Amino acid sequence: MGNREDLLAGAKRCLYEKGYARTTARDIAAASGVSLSAIGYHYGTKEALLNAALYQAMEEWGDDLSRILNAEAGPDATPADRFEAAWEGVIASFAANRPLWAIQFEIVAHIEQLPELRRTLSEASRQARLGLAELFGSLGLAGGGQRDLLLGSFYQVLLSGVAAQWLLDPEGAPSGRDLLDAVRTVTEVVGPGPVARS
């Protein structure tokens, strides 16, 4: 690897070990084995480097999630089976990526002090909604346009909420079956109605 890649790998290690706010430029330089001045040369600022490391970590998690969702349910599975299996896979991924989720909640808590990151994450969040609609599209619900944004928003809310519950109390967090039962209960209560179209 070159200095740029070494810095990115070192920044990711520091994020996982120390979090966003507590990571210093010296920490990154030491973890990457690259000079302190290389951060400025390759990324401009420590924050830009940490942001790049965070985006890369999220992309890697998204790729892992895609593999999980594609492998979780068989070809004869019903949409309900696929929903439950998909969420079991998502929940299992929290254990392997606990530091990544902890970092995200840390950043949300300090987002007012990070205006550049806030702007970038706002746009990334919109893209994430579309990505989640695509990832969960195998459930037979994706429809394009506004419908995908609505479904992506729903999945993003579920994902964030389940991640928060799992970080606080992994044993008490809902399972894929719990989420399926909850969706069915809400559907029974609110009843059928018009669905947003593109």
Give a structural overview.
With about 200 residues, the chain is an all-alpha fold. It has 9 helices and no strands. Helix 5 crosses helix 9 (about 175-190) and helix 7 (about 115-135) packs across helix 8.
Give a concise summary.
With 198 residues, the chain is an all-alpha fold. The protein has nine helices and no strands.
Rg, rounded, reads 19 Å
Can you tell me the residue ranges where pLDDT is under 50 for at least 5 consecutive residues?
Answer: none
- Outline: elongated
Strand count: 0
Arithmetic mean pLDDT: 86
Terminal residue distance: 45 Å
Which range does the strand content fall in? under 5%
Percentage of helical residues? Answer: over 70%
| Structural class category | mainly alpha
Main β-sheet: number of strands, strand sense, barrel status?
A: none
Q: Can you write the helix and strand succession as a string?
A: HHHHHHHHH
List the helices and strands and how they pair.
Blueprint lengths: L2 H16 L6 H8 L4 H7 L2 H27 L6 H18 L1 H12 L5 H21 L9 H24 L7 H15 L8
Helix pairs in contact: 1-2, 1-4, 4-5, 5-9, 7-8
Keywords:
198 residues, mainly alpha, 75% helix, elongated
